[in-house]
Design brief:
With 910 residues, the protein is α+β, with helices and mostly antiparallel strands. It is built from 25 helices and 29 strands. Strands 2-1-5-4-3 form a five-stranded antiparallel beta sheet, sandwiched between helices. Strands 7-6-10-9-8 form a five-stranded antiparallel beta sheet. Strand 11 and strand 12 form a beta hairpin. It starts with a helix and ends in a 9-residue tail after the last strand. The relative contact order is 0.05. The N terminus and C terminus are likely disordered.
Length: 910
């Protein structure tokens, strides 16, 4: 089917008569013929017209380029000629300036040398030699002026003397010797030391220079002008005497600065429009401007262009006429197809093109309909795929959101809706950065800029804000959605809610930081405990020695002062012990050993220890639990006794003379709790509600420090921590001036009441005082100690036993050597020595067959549980801490030494 069929008419109407049909068929044939003719003409003429127009345009462009090239060539040739002239002039001046006849500044010699110089080149109007003061020494043309003009006042003269190069003057309309327009090219004359002694100048005849420029003027009415850097005209081929010395107008200079190397078209002052091109001479800022009348260079191209335009216009009119005829034939099927396309584009999926259109239009309509059907099938498949994909995304806990390049949400899954609390219609189309990101710390703007610059990080973490205002931390994996050409369409983010994980990590880090700080605090307290115990050992030790040896040598006041020293030392030791216990509890270093305890026996032992204190304060101790059924708990006897002693001691200290302290045991009202309470009640001064609030604050004595009552302010804090370590609670009730009630609640073990009493453990009884014995210790003691004060204290303590020999070694190496030599009955070992730790000394003692059986007791100011355990594990049979408790120390020491009979008259030990 040909192209003519596409623009032909429809089939004839068979319902008409034969005559009409016969008339219609030739008419339709003529119409088809004309249409084919118009199409053929258009198909032939339009390409030819385009080719012709392109050829004319190319010819016109080449003619313009050739004309502009001629102007540029003229300006460059003239610039080259001027540059060559200046180069020759400079060489000539250098040659003349090097002659001794010139440097001598002698008029006769100078004139003889310069004679005949005027015939060298007509452009050289004169050569002038002047001395340093500006007086003319000689000239090459004419006679030297009788009265020398003031050359020193000319603008070029001082510049020449100061310069080591050539100097070009401004144009001079009338010279001194030559009465014509001139321009001087000058150089300084210098003596052998380089000092300027005068000037040598050649006068360039600007009229002759203008004639030289006229040789390059094409055509004859062209204008070539030499201009200096200030815009002053130095030479011009047309009417030079009227132009030399004048300055170009600002508008002309502006045009020249806009196109310093190109061609500009401008109307001159003579009314002639010229095409100007300028070229740089390359010296002294000189430029040559060549101008050719536009009529001369563009006459032929314009005539040809006009003729071609006329032919093209006629051809175009003919082509438009043919195109109009063709459009009338093509408009109906194209309009039908266009209507179908517009209807489909607006959403009418049921529209179809008219496949009955003639020729190729019918085939195009069929292809269009098949495309619509294929597109609908593809969209159906895509819609089903998207539904399956959306169902898949909604079934996972990961957050999926898609944002376009403007930051608007285009899609999201149910996980985002569940997390944020928004509905889908409230999310789709909103600005993601505004609705979901917090507006603090510039996060919105940073992420918005990163997306706009296509630099969104692959993985990032940021908070999102829910509908209720809560913040959730989400870890995102981002991917950029791109078109086929690589253009960014948006960003898809897949996120995981890591809020709980992040909070857990922060809690873990805080816990580690707290544990580290706690370890540092414990280590500090342990170190301080050791450093405080060492001098305290000397304070308590020697004060007790003084009290023992003073006897009747001191009066009552001095003895009281001595007792005050001992009491203060004991109080400081108690404070150190309490601080160390608190540090060990907080560090988890105190281990409790629960075992069956009979409470009545434990309380009896504690009250027995507190009886002397109660008697001294005139306070009555009452056992309210006496005679009742026995109560048992499973706890640590030592730590529970420590708590009871602290509570009873406080009840005595903060009581009043004639007051009472009552200790009782009672079961908890709720037997299902399986607990028992130890109650310590006093009739003392009591506490206010404000004082109760600060009861467990360390070192807060609630104002009692001003009442002269001894204490440290950490006993109750330690007691509460010990009770909590034992699995119980410690509570206080008090009223000012009406006493205080302390309650320790401990868990009771069901069925423990049935256990035989012999299996229970009572409280540790107070250490029995040494009993007088007819035997006293003897043997040898080796004390490895680097502190001379501690060593002196032990030596003086053991001096009361004549049969005991004491030797001191001040470091580990010496102690090991003396231990092998002496094989003492008892070796006292300090755990911190200057050359090696005490543990290493014990390890070497146990590794040496000569000393492996020695009895070793660790005697140290360090009292941390792990240090005690390490010493026992290394081989120490005991671990005694400083300050030394004299009675306990001597009693334990005598148990590890052999004994001898002593005379009956000797007194017992301490």
């Amino acid at each position: 089917m040909g192209l003519a069929t596409l623009i032909g008419s429809s089939a004839p109407d068979k319902g008409r008569g034969g005559r009409d049909e016969a008339k219609a068929v030739p008419g339709r044939r003529r119409s088809h013929f004309l249409t084919r003719l118009m199409v053929t003409v258009m198909a032939v003429l339009l390409p030819m017209l385009c080719l012709h127009a392109y050829t004319l345009y190319s010819d016109f462009r080449r003619a313009h380029a050739a004309a502009y090239g001629a102007v540029l060539n003229d300006s460059q040739a003239a610039a080259q000629r001027v540059g060559d002239l200046i180069d020759r002039s400079e060489r000539l001046l250098r040659l003349i300036a090097s002659r001794e006849d010139i440097l001598a500044l002698d008029t006769a010699r100078c004139e003889r040398f310069l004679g005949g110089f005027g015939s060298v080149n007509p452009i050289y109007a004169n050569v002038t030699v002047a001395d340093r003061r500006g007086r003319i020494v000689c000239v090459s043309v004419g006679a030297r002026p009788a009265s020398s003009p003031a050359l020193a006042e000319r603008e070029w003269f001082p510049r020449t003397l100061a310069s080591n190069d050539f100097v070009l003057s401004k144009p001079i309309l009338r010279g001194v010797v030559v009465q014509r327009p001139l321009m001087l090219l000058a150089i300084a004359l210098r003596d052998p030391q380089g000092q300027a002694i005068g000037t040598l100048a050649v006068s360039l005849d600007l009229a002759e220079l203008s004639r030289l420029l006229a040789l390059h003027a094409q055509p004859p009415d062209g204008a070539i002008t030499l201009i200096d850097r200030d815009g002053d005209i130095l030479a011009r081929n047309v009417d030079p005497l009227s132009w030399i010395g004048h300055r170009l107008s600002p508008s002309a200079q502006a045009l020249r600065s806009e196109s310093p190397e190109g061609v500009i078209v401008v109307r001159g002052v003579d009314g002639i429009e010229r095409a100007f091109a300028s070229a740089d001479v390359g010296k002294y800022g000189l430029r040559v401007s060549a101008g050719i009348p536009v009529q001369s260079i563009f006459a032929a191209p314009r005539t040809a262009a006009l003729q071609s335009a006329t032919v093209a216009l006629l051809t175009l009119l003919f082509a438009v006429s043919l195109a109009g005829l063709l459009a009338r034939s093509l408009s109906r099927p194209i309009a039908s197809l266009s209507a179908a396309v517009r209807a489909w584009a607006t959403g009418d999926q049921a529209v179809r093109a008219d496949e009955r259109l003639p020729g190729e239009f019918g085939e195009l309509a069929q292809e269009f309909n098949r495309m619509i059907e294929a597109r609908q099938a593809s969209e159906d498949r895509l819609r089903q795929t998207e539904m399956r994909y959306a169902d898949l995304l909604d079934s996972v806990d990961m957050i999926v959101v898609t944002v376009d390049t403007a930051g608007r949400v285009t899609a999201c899954n149910d996980a985002l809706l569940r997390l944020t609390g928004w509905r889908r219609d409230e999310v789709i189309g909103v600005d993601w950065f505004t609705q979901f990101l917090p507006d603090d710390s510039g996060l919105r703007e940073r992420l918005r800029r990163a997306q706009a610059q296509d630099r969104l990080p692959r993985v990032n973490e940021n908070e999102i804000v829910t509908r209720s205002g809560r913040r959730r931390l989400v870890r995102w994996n981002n991917s950029v959605l791109r078109a086929e050409d690589g253009t960014a369409l948006g960003v898809r983010g897949i996120g995981e809610d890591i809020t709980e994980r992040h909070e857990a990590e922060l809690a873990r880090q805080a816990s580690e930081a707290a544990a580290s700080a706690n370890r540092a605090k414990t280590e500090f307290i342990s170190r301080m405990s050791h450093e405080l115990r060492t001098p305290l050992n000397a304070v308590l030790g020697f004060s007790q020695l003084l009290r023992h040896s003073a006897g009747a040598k001191v009066d009552a006041g001095e003895r009281q002062q001595l007792e005050m020293i001992i009491m203060a030392g004991e109080q400081l030791r108690a404070l150190i012990d309490d601080l160390l216990d608190i540090a060990c509890i907080e560090a988890g270093r105190i281990k409790v050993t629960p075992q069956p305890l009979e409470l009545c026996a434990l309380l009896d032992g504690a009250l027995q220890l507190c009886a002397p204190q109660a008697e001294a304060h005139d306070v009555t101790l009452t056992r309210a639990y006496a005679g009742r059924a026995t109560r048992h708990v499973c706890s640590d006897a030592t730590r529970l006794t420590q708590v009871v002693l602290n509570l009873v001691s406080n009840a005595i200290k903060y009581n009043r003379p004639g007051g009472a302290v009552t200790v009782d045991i009672r079961p908890v009202a709720d037997e299902a709790a399986h607990a028992v309470e130890i109650v310590v009640a006093d009739t003392g001064i009591g506490m206010t509600p404000q004082q109760l609030q600060g009861l467990f604050q360390p070192f807060n004595r609630l104002g009692r420090e001003h009442e002269g009552i001894p204490g440290t302010g950490i006993g109750l804090m330690l007691s509460r921590q010990l009770v909590e370590l034992l699995g119980g609670t410690l509570e206080f009730r008090s009223e000012a001036q009406h006493g205080t009630v302390a309650t320790v609640r401990l868990p009771a073990t069901p069925g423990l009441e049935a256990m035989p009493s012999r299996e229970t453990v009572a409280a540790p009884s107070p250490a029995a005082a040494p009993v007088s014995s007819p035997r006293e210790p003897s043997g040898s003691v080796l004390y490895i100690e680097d502190n001379p004060v501690n060593a002196m204290l032990v030596i003086q303590l053991l001096a009361r036993w004549p049969s005991v020999r004491v030797e001191v070694s001040t470091d580990g190496q010496t102690g090991l050597r003396r231990a092998r030599e002496l094989k003492p009955d008892l070796l006292l070992l300090d755990m911190q020595l200057p050359d090696m730790p005490g543990l290493e000394v014990m390890q070497r003692l146990r590794a040496d067959p000569a000393t492996c059986t020695l009895t070793v007791v660790a005697l140290s100011a360090s009292a941390m549980p792990e240090e005690v355990e390490a010493a026992r594990h290394a081989g120490a049979i005991a671990y005694w801490t400083k300050p030394i408790d004299f009675e306990r120390f001597l009693l334990d020491l005598s148990a590890h030494l052999p004994s001898v009979e002593r005379p009956d008259e000797e007194s017992p030990v301490v």
